[in-house]
Write a structure and sequence with these properties.
4-stranded mixed sheet; 136 residues; single chain
């Protein structure tokens, strides 16, 4: 790991923990917060979030309104999710501060929530799941 990568990872951890009350690194590990997926359904995206984030809430609503299953990873409650998010962020956005939500669709990472960028990534990723009871 390069010195720059380590600096970005350290800055990300400090940013996420310092800006959020009650989020110390000594916090007990808890299972990741995940959206409820129907049995056998595959998420169209992985979304790294933190509680109270208005942009995370907006992204969650975007996917829910379209009936698209998403796997949510809470970076405050799950250290593994935080490490994954920071690794993806360093690879994809080496010169930027890490922010949430970080959304990954079909291998394409997006920092923050931009409706048009998410729609384009969904389009490139392929067919959308069909809601139960709807015609194909």
């Amino acid at each position: 790991m390069t010195k720059q990568t380590m600096m970005v990872l350290t800055a990300g951890i400090l940013f996420l923990t310092a800006c959020l009350p009650g989020c110390g690194m000594t916090r007990a590990l808890t299972p990741p917060e995940s959206s409820v997926l129907a049995a056998g359904s595959k998420p169209v995206a992985v979304m790294y979030v933190r509680p109270g984030c208005p942009y995370c809430r907006e992204a969650r609503r975007f996917f829910a309104d379209r009936g698209l299953p998403v796997m949510e990873r809470n970076v405050l409650a799950d250290r593994q999710a935080l490490a994954e998010m920071l690794e993806i962020h360093v690879r994809s956005f080496p010169d930027e501060e890490p922010i949430v939500p970080l959304i990954v669709i079909g291998g394409h990472a997006m920092s923050g929530f931009d409706r048009e960028e998410v729609e384009a990534a969904l389009e490139m990723a392929g067919p959308k799941p069909v809601a139960a009871g709807s015609k194909q």
